[in-house]
Amino acid sequence: MKLHPATQIIVWSLLVAAMQFLKPSHLLLAGGLVLLSAFILARYKLLQLLRRTRWIMLSLWLIYAYTTPGDTLFSLPLSPSVDGLQEGGLQMMRLLVALSGLAILLDRLHRQQLISGLYSLFGPLQYLGLSRERLAVRLALTLHYAEVAMLRSVSWQESLRSLNAGSLKPATENKTMELPIARFALPDLLLLVVSILLFWQAV
Q: Residue 72, SS3?
């Protein structure tokens, strides 16, 4: 079954939003299922995303551990709080769910399909006088340079030096970009209805 790219993006967004309202026990259960699904369906993408965000997740956990008031874990002056460790763990689980869903999304959608889905979602912006064509082109360039940066096996210091040196320069020649514009079908409607109902239940 082939779903519209915009439908898949909306479902991922609803998933990420729903995780913010689940109780800790439900969050661990749902998060474990999503993480397992991502490991089965998009293992390479998931591991790539986890490798790129490992320091962010560790920093997030430590920030919660040392800034949340509560009983300390050890009887030491610089000891993390138990409540902070628990809250940081829940936030890490929410981030893991978001990355797992994103891994599945990126594995199912090529870059042009992803941009096509966002192009469809940008439709209402034209009533505000904004050009969704320009937004799609800017997004395509952003994704291109982000993908190039992720494929480079360099340290963050070297990345900063390359940016300061201006090594990533936009191409000057004119290029055209074709987007595969799909149509919404009955499976898209059914999936959106089910996703909205599940989100409503979570809230």
A: strand
